[in-house]
Design brief:
- The protein has 612 residues and is an alpha/beta fold.
- The chain has 4 domains: 98 residues, Signal recognition particle alu RNA binding heterodimer, srp9/1; 188 residues, Rossmann fold; 70 residues, Helicase, Ruva Protein, domain 3 (Orthogonal Bundle); 196 residues, Methane Monooxygenase Hydroxylase, Chain G, domain 1 (Up-down Bundle).
- It is built from 22 helices and 15 strands.
- It has a 6-stranded mixed β-sheet, sandwiched between helices. Strands 3-2-1-4 form a 4-stranded mixed β-sheet, with helices on one face.
- The longest helix has 30 residues.
- The chain is extended, with a radius of gyration of 39 Å.
- The N terminus and C terminus are likely disordered.
- Adenosine-5'-diphosphate binds next to α8, α13 and α15.
- Zinc ion (ZN) binds next to α17.
């Protein structure tokens, strides 16, 4: 289709150009031509008033108002004659110069050639897929562009695993002499941005071997067979340069389970490409040390054929780093940035649970950009706060106009979350609460885990749900209204409760049974329910509703008790818009003092947390 459009486009341009040239030449030719003798005769007869000389072409205007042109073989000798007869002489730049002539002829030809070339280049894929595959797909980066394990932080155990592979690559003979078959394929599984590509490069860099990289989606082309031929190309090249590493990113694009293909044609192409890949991997001889590293974030959809022994039989999980890993990664990137003394990378690591290496890299970069925009010489903590909020919650929507009524609702809503997050047992402490709209949210309460959690207790989950419902509870209690601000809270709370009941066996009546199956995907948050009876379905609904209602009642109870704290916090938010942990603590202490003074006018010492 593209080729057709291009051809039509080229033809249109050509005909316009051709037409233009034709017109220009034709207008010039409309003047009748006379021979030079006749011209000289008219000159002698004083019939010529004016001449235009352009190169050797002389166009004359005679006394009768006629026009004619002639070719003058020798202009220099003609000029004195003209001047003698008082003829007005006008000169024009010489269009007929050799250069002009050349351009005149070659330009259209050049144009035609260019158009033809671009069309042929596009069609080349069909006719000569070998070259086509070669120029687009195979990227050779010698030695992984100097990246080594020093550049990869926070995943020590993975590095450990890969040391063996590096040894295979460096000393293949050591293993082949003993008849050992080195592993052929290693599959990196993990969410995007966790450093899979970086790690593959680092392995090549450490081993000092060539690194070929290609993305699974590069294999899958419109034309059936191209992908398979690219695979063969790639491996032929790699074998020539063994020992080396071939890195296939997004291998799920070719190695996806057949059932997950979308169209019949696409499946055919993918099937062929996958087969070619399997054939190549099976076909290495022991002296060709080509190690195939592949990356995917959807291990669940991979064709089992890929994971058989002799293929990608080693799988390495790369998950987002834990708090220690995040600190190490931050250290790697912060080395390149001048930091102010108030920046505590440890606090940043703590406040970024779930961030991948790529997100941490972008956090440091955003902070540096923000500091530079303010003409600062060093990057300080406030820059990191801004960058973090931006990555986590989207841009501040400064221009958004919120009327005072809504602002009050948002302040009470967020204060409701913050009070509960501050007082309920086992919650993550509040880091910041704000009523500045960001991204989709109109306000937010940010909690900060003390440590990475790997298991969540029932108490923690109940507190989490209660905190989520606290926004609506505060609106209900103090403003006597219900607004749509609670939409996201309900959604989140609902998801947690459903998991508690159906997956984690935390309900009273349904018992310790899991009614769902995990889909195994790193991204897949979807729950697949097992089949169960209508009665169980009703039980699940009842349980979910009960947990939500209990939590909501708890939220109302705590907020009623802590009304002073809630009101003070909301009022402080209306004034300051954003409050950090220390400011929230100050508001809390003030409210306590006030409360105690009310209860017992003699005791003015500050009390401790009432709920713990
Ligand atoms: P993936 O291939 O898993 O999607 P990449 O390897 O492309 O992730 O990572 C993107 C970028 O994130 C890297 O170029 C690097 O700057 C940064 N990064 C990710 N993980 C790490 C890590 N463990 N150590 C250092 N940098 C990392
Ligand atoms: Zn809310």
């Amino acid at each position: 289709m593209i080729i057709f459009v291009r051809t039509v486009f080229a033809l249109v341009i050509l005909s316009v150009l051709g037409g233009g040239i034709y017109l220009v030449t034709m207008t010039e030719k409309r003047v009748p031509e006379i021979c030079y003798n006749d011209f000289l005769e008219s000159l002698q007869n004083k019939e010529i008033e004016e001449v235009h000389i352009c190169g050797n072409i002389v166009t004359l205007h005679d006394t009768f108002g006629r026009k004619a042109s002639t070719y003058a073989p020798d202009i220099p000798s003609l000029l004195p004659l003209l001047l003698k007869e008082n003829v007005r002489v006008m000169g024009k730049p010489d269009k007929e110069s050799p250069l002009w002539n050349l351009l005149y002829i070659t330009l259209p030809i050049l144009f035609i050639l260019l158009a033809w070339y671009s069309i042929m280049k596009k069609q080349g894929g069909e006719e000569d897929e070998k070259d086509f595959g070669k120029d687009k797909a195979v990227k050779i980066n010698k030695h992984g562009q100097g990246i080594t394990f020093r550049d990869v932080a926070g995943i020590p155990e993975v590095k450990e695993d890969l040391l063996e592979i590096i040894d295979f690559l460096q000393k293949p003979k050591k293993y082949s002499k003993l008849g050992a078959i080195t592993p052929k394929g290693i599959l990196f599984q993990g969410p995007p941005g966790t450093g899979k590509t970086l790690l593959a490069r680092a392995v090549a860099g450490e081993a000092g071997v060539p690194f070929y990289s290609i993305s699974g989606s590069d294999f899958v082309e419109m034309f059936v067979g191209v992908g398979a031929s690219r695979v063969r190309e790639l491996f032929a090249e790699a074998k020539k340069n063994a020992p080396c590493i071939v890195f296939i990113d997004e291998i799920d694009a070719v190695g996806g389970h057949r059932a997950s293909g979308s169209t019949a044609g696409g499946q055919d192409e993918r099937g062929q490409t996958l087969n070619a890949l399997l054939v190549e991997m099976d076909g290495f001889s022991s002296d060709e040390t080509v190690i195939v590293l592949a990356a995917t974030n959807r291990p669940d959809i991979l064709d089992p054929a890929l994971l058989r022994p002799g293929r990608f039989d080693r799988q390495i999980n790369i998950l987002p780093p834990d708090i220690k890993g995040r600190l190490e990664i931050l250290n790697v990137f912060a080395r390149k940035v001048p930091l102010a003394s108030d920046v505590e990378l440890e606090t940043i690591a703590r406040s970024t649970p779930g961030f991948t290496g790529a997100e941490l890299a972008s956090l440091v970069n955003e902070a540096a950009i923000y500091a530079a925009r303010q003409n600062k010489k060093i990057v300080d903590n406030s820059d990191f706060e801004v960058a973090k909020d931006r990555i986590m919650m989207g841009l501040e929507r400064k221009g958004m106009v919120i009327n005072s009524e809504d602002k009050k609702t948002i302040a009470y809503h967020e204060a409701g979350h913050a009070v509960l997050a501050n007082l309920l047992p086992e919650t993550d402490p509040v880091h910041k609460v704000s009523i500045i709209p960001r991204g989709r949210a109109l306000g937010h309460t940010q909690q900060l885990a003390l440590d990475d959690r790997h298991a969540y207790s029932k108490v923690y989950l109940y507190s989490k749900i209660t905190t989520l419902l606290g926004g609506r509870a505060a609106e209900d209690l103090l403003l006597d209204q219900q607004t749509t601000f609670a939409e996201d809270d309900f959604e989140q709370a609902g998801r947690i409760v459903t998991k508690m009941v159906c997956r984690w066996g935390m309900s009273d009546t349904l018992g310790h049974v899991s009614y769902t199956q995990s889909d195994g995907g790193f991204l897949g948050e979807q729950m697949h329910f097992n089949s169960f009876s209508d009665e169980t379905a009703r039980d699940i609904d009842r349980q979910v509703k009960e947990v939500i209602e209990q939590s909501y009642a708890k939220a109302i109870e705590v907020l009623k008790k802590e009304k002073d704290f809630l009101v003070n916090l909301a009022e402080a938010l209306l004034v300051n818009e954003t409050l950090d942990k220390e400011e929230i603590d100050i508001v809390y202490r003030c409210a306590r003092k006030k409360g105690q003074a009310k209860d017992d006018p003699l005791d003015s010492s500050s009390g401790s947390c009432p709920v713990h």
